[in-house]
Structure formats: structure tokens, C-alpha cells
Amino acid sequence: MKQEQIKKQIEELQDMLKDMKQERIEAAVIYSEHSDFMVEIDEDILLCSVTINDLTKQLTTKNR
Length: 64
What we know:
Elements: H1 3-28, H2 36-62
Helix pairs in contact: 1-2
């Protein structure tokens, strides 16, 4: 993947992550912390965060 593609994907994932965090805040009012819905949101947030980190590492490694 080219550097510009990686940068664009990181930006998109950061936007998604922001939206997921907001969704989690709103869902916490309705669902219990251990409900399947909340667990799924937490897993999605974690996966998105890890992907952002991996792409960032790829970007910095390519710049060396």
C-alpha cells in the first residue's frame, strides 16, 4: 500500500473510531456494561485502534 493510501486509511479509521466511541457513550445509558452489544462495540473499538497502530507503524517504517 502506498504512503498516501495508508495516510488516508488512518484518517478514515480515526473518524470511525471517534464515532464508535460516541456510540459507546450513548449505548452505555441503555445497555449494561456486559451486554453483547457493549462487548461488540468494545471489540470493534479495539480492532480499529490496533489497525490504526499497525498502519502507523507501517507508515513510519516506510519513511526510514
